[in-house]
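Appendix B. Worked example

We walk through a single record from start to finish. Start with the input: the chain for LysR family transcriptional regulator, Oceanimonas pelagia, length 299.
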Amino acid sequence: MYRPKSTVEQWRIFQAVVDYGGYAQAAEKLNKSQSSLNHAVAKLQQALGLALLEVRGRKACLTPQGEVFLRRSRKLTQDVESLERLADILSSGWEPVLRIVVEASLPRAPLYQALAEFRPRSRGCRIHLVETQPSGCQTVISQQAANLVFASRAYPNITSLPLATTVYVPVCAPDHPLAALAEVGQTELEQQLELVLADGNEQEEGWARGEQRWIINHLHDALSLLRRGVGFAWLPLDVVSPMIHDGILVRLNMANQALRKRFTHLILPGTTPPGPAASLLLSLIRQHYDGHEEPGNTP
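Next comes the structure step. The output line below is what the pipeline stores for this chain.
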């Protein structure tokens, strides 16, 4: 088993002697005797078999080897300080990890904004962001396997917060046959392939679906297929608006078709109140969803 030849305290003293320009100055700053600092550095050099410092007059100067070890030792002491701070953070109840599950069909720009603001205040908390389907959300909630779940429906006896209403619009590629029609009815839609961003339970939403349909698990896959002229899809308006503006996708002009909407619910599956990290992220999420507006919600 490996046994260290040096201690963190020896490296801290070595750094202090360099930073303050000598043993006497470092001893005064550290409130230690000069002899104890001399002894610590001498013992460190003896253990390594290398000269890290050489005294020129009254000043301690780095040797070439000392310059290398100074850079590496700073990372060592910083890592130790980070570990000690982490212990303080975790002992205060701050969560080391937050697991967030998002239903695939829901837009999440406000969530990304909240996470961007959470990062500098996260105090080392790691984020696991997972995309899943409605059935996956249900499993995660029943097993209490996440801190926060974004789902398109609420669940009985589970704490949930309504966040936003998302408008879904039909889109296709500019060269798709539907794009050439001045007005599109349900009959025309039923004759074309539909890409359904769901897990097969789409009938529960009350959205009429055509016989020709592919079930797509991820929004990225649906967009990639649409851009290649494969089928049409009902997708979140705030996601596809930039693509419509740039001419990458075309929004179909529906005849006598009401807007399709989905709600975003924030589910808290746990039976205990969220911890301090989750509470902070939760407040940022609510702030950004409250200020989020759908672009062009008119048909």
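Two observations about the output. Confidence is low (pLDDT under 50) at residues 200-204, 295-299. Residues 101 and 149 are 5 Å apart (CA to CA).
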